[in-house]
From TrEMBL:
Residues 1-25 are annotated as: Disordered. It comes from Micromonospora halophytica. Keywords: Membrane, Transmembrane, Transmembrane helix. Residues 374-522 form the Sulfatase N-terminal domain. Coiled coil: none annotated. This is Arylsulfatase A. The chain crosses the membrane at residues 33-50, 70-90, 102-119, 125-143, 155-173. SUPFAM superfamilies: Alkaline phosphatase-like. The keyword Zinc does not apply. It comes from the Bacteria. It holds the Pfam family Sulfatase.
Length: 683
């Protein structure tokens, strides 16, 4: 009997994993599920995010991230989502094997749907709800296929090699790799020659087209921009000056190296070891306030980060970018859109300067509204025993626009369009308002230089790296804008005040921004030990009128034409500035930030100056709306097609004197063809 039992028993297991590993709830099954989740999370989260950030080393430089911060962010992006999803899946085991299997299938379906949204946005014309519905159908189909057949799961498990590959490409092959794995600090020093070595004060503004400063006569509009006009009156204005690129990470290195952009490199000292800071660093004390570049090596200057920068800021802004990447609507994912200069109050700086004696600076707190980078730069403008280079790259009047001419701030939706009928005009109005505040900062710089005795002795340079187009169909600074509105993208203000210069003059030579470094070197009597593409202003002008401009490094474009003419201002509507006592009520509108008008505190330095919302669909596009604050019409704007956020109008109240302490009354009026008004009920 015993012999018969032995003969019918299963043979002993001699190799392979224990059978419990292959069960649906076994460890091997869980490993397969984890690999599938890792593959899908890598495609949905890791790859798109690292792709954008890898092409944007300026993102890390702006947030003062060190290599450790970047590596931690990469680890979080790569591992944390997979661990989170995997942990939630494991928790479903408590409900049994069937529940675990169903939960995993649901996760696969959701991740496939998220992937379909991204692919569909790039490959089809579907957007919004239709794209979500199509992605949902594809996700459900993919989940069903995964549940029924083994092949999809096998493909996903092979694709789990993706995240390590994406990380390797980011760390070793992307432009951002220079920030994570920088080479040694070094660069060629200039050779000091005979002659005076004056202090150098250099200010680079950002996204400032020359035409924004011009008046109808082709000169600086002294009414709107008195301090730019003041600077022009005592310096040489190179009126025919152009930047070399519409993107700061290419434009600024060209300015500081004297070379045209040749390769898509990170704006980092390891990629551009020979630049203004290394050339003057052996002779000059370098005090650099950079924003989205790190061209000054640590051996020449220190740029410490604050607690609000580094990893904390990287995680916050990466989350914002990811929301744009996975959204079912079009989004120009550009990290530079988040580059807002933090104020001195936000950074916690003490007031370095007294409140300007200017009635437009109405409240004490406006000194806190100065950008912290500017406040630090201003505090350092003091005479020194050793020649000093004071350098400031300030992201003003660069978007996001947040300042009124007085210096008061306002808030706006992050996704407010900048292009299209109505939106491009609003963008230009906001740009000009912020430019007028930038003019105030220029005035503060000139006042400080005179007060400290530096103004007369210093070589003072003020320019911008590039401009921007506000033409309705060609808004921005990409290739379309360059081809159709080069006068707004390439031509920038450039002022050079040499030591002891007192009289202003205009020089219309063909200036390109690669001329900046050789010009500075000549003025401070330092020889540049490397070949440059530019020519000093002390040399003969270029014999040709054509300009060289780069949308992409190594691919020069030829621009023709001279100094651009300012586009005509739109005629002011006759209702602006008038008082509205009463008007019949007819219709309704929704104002998104209506509650902000209930308790306004001008002393806080912030006003609800941007108004946005919607009107019913039956109100035709192009209908004019008059926006009144406390009974005075501040502006008149058109109703436009509904944007992705559901908005059909937005208006800037540029005159902060219309606001008062406490409750403020906001009224919207529909303007009839004959000029009559119908007040809209607000909600």
């Amino acid at each position: 009997m015993a012999d018969r039992t032995l003969a019918t028993a299963a043979p002993p297991r001699t190799s392979g994993p224990p059978p419990e590993l292959d069960r649906p709830g076994g460890r091997r099954a869980e490993l397969r599920r984890l690999l599938e989740v890792a593959a899908l999370v890598g495609l949905v989260v890791t790859q798109p995010l690292l792709d954008v950030l890898g092409r944007s080393p300026d993102f890390f430089l702006f947030h003062r991230a060190d290599p450790g911060d970047v590596l931690l962010l990469v680890a979080l992006v790569t591992v944390l989502p997979t661990v989170a999803v995997g942990t939630l899946g494991l928790a479903t085991r408590l409900a049994g094997v069937r529940a675990r299997t169903l939960a995993h299938t649901a996760v696969v379906g959701l991740l496939l749907a998220a992937l379909a949204v991204q692919v569909g946005r790039h490959a089809t014309g579907l957007r919004g709800v239709p794209l979500l519905l199509a992605a949902g159908v594809l996700g459900a189909a993919g989940a069903a296929a995964h549940r029924r057949w083994r092949a999809p799961g096998r493909v996903l498990r092979v694709a789990a090699v993706g995240p390590p590959v994406f990380v390797a490409l980011f760390l070793f092959a992307s432009p951002a790799s220079a920030v994570v794995l920088p080479r040694a600090d070094g660069g060629a020093a200039g050779v000091a020659g005979p002659g005076e070595h004056p202090p150098v004060v250099m200010i680079v503004l950002d996204e400032l087209p020359l035409v924004s400063l011009l008046g109808p006569d082709g000169r600086i509009d002294a009414t709107r921009y008195p301090h730019f006009a003041e600077l022009a009156a005592g310096s040489t204005w190179y009126r025919n000056a152009t930047g070399v690129s519409g993107w700061t990470p290419y434009a600024l290195p060209a300015m500081l190296t004297g070379r045209y952009p040749a390769q898509p490199l990170a704006p980092h000292y390891s990629q551009y070891p020979d630049n203004l800071f290394t050339a003057l660093g052996g002779l000059y004390d370098v005090r650099a306030e950079e924003s989205i570049t790190r061209l000054c090596p640590p051996s020449r200057c220190d740029q410490p980060s604050s607690p609000e920068q580094g990893l904390k800021a990287l995680v916050r802004e990466s989350g914002r970018l990811l929301r744009q990447l996975v959204a079912p609507v079009d989004s120009r994912v550009d990290p530079q859109e988040s580059y807002r200069e933090r104020t001195a109050a936000e950074v916690g700086l003490d007031d370095a300067e007294p409140v300007p004696d200017d009635p437009k600076f109405r409240w004490d707190s406006l000194n806190d509204n100065q950008p912290a980078r500017f406040a630090g730069f201003l505090a350092g403008l003091r005479p020194t025993d050793r020649p000093a280079l004071h350098f400031l790259h300030l992201l003003m009047p660069h978007a996001p626009w947040a300042y009124l001419p007085s210096g008061a701030r306002y808030t706006a939706p992050e996704d407010l369009p900048n292009a299209g009928a109505g939106w491009a005009e609003l963008a230009r109005a906001r740009h000009l308002a912020q430019l007028r505040y930038t003019d105030r900062l220029v005035g503060e710089t000139l006042r400080t230089l005179r007060a400290t005795g530096l103004y007369d002795r210093a070589l003072l340079v003020l320019t911008a790296d590039h401009g921007v187009s506000f033409q309705r169909d060609w808004q921005g600074r990409g290739l379309d804008a360059i081809n159709h509105a080069a006068g707004e993208v390439a031509w920038v203000p450039t002022f050079v005040k040499t030591p002891h210069q007192r009289a202003g003059r205009v020089d219309d030579r063909n200036w390109e921004h690669v001329d900046l470094l050789p010009t500075i070197a000549d003025e401070v009597h330092v020889r540049i030990p490397w070949r440059v593409d530019g020519r000093s202003a002390r040399q003969a002008p270029r014999p040709h009128a054509e300009k060289v401009f780069y949308d992409r490094p190594g691919q020069p474009l030829t621009l023709r034409g001279g100094v651009p003419v300012r586009p005509p201002d739109p005629p002011a509507h006759p209702l602006v500035g008038t008082t509205v006592d009463a008007a019949p009520t007819e219709g309704r509108a929704r104002v998104a930030n209506l509650a902000a008008f209930r308790a306004v505190d001008p002393a806080a330095g912030e006003l609800p100056a941007l108004v946005w919302g919607t009107v019913p669909d039956e109100v035709p596009d192009g209908t004019l709306l008059a926006v009144a604050v406390n009974g005075t019409v501040a502006t008149v704007v058109p109703v436009v097609p509904r944007d992705e956020g559901g908005r059909r109008f937005a208006a800037l109240v540029g005159d902060d004197h219309l606001f008062r302490v406490g409750a403020n009354r906001l009224d919207l009026y529909r303007v009839a063809a004959h000029g009559g008004l119908r007040r809209l009920t607000l909600g």
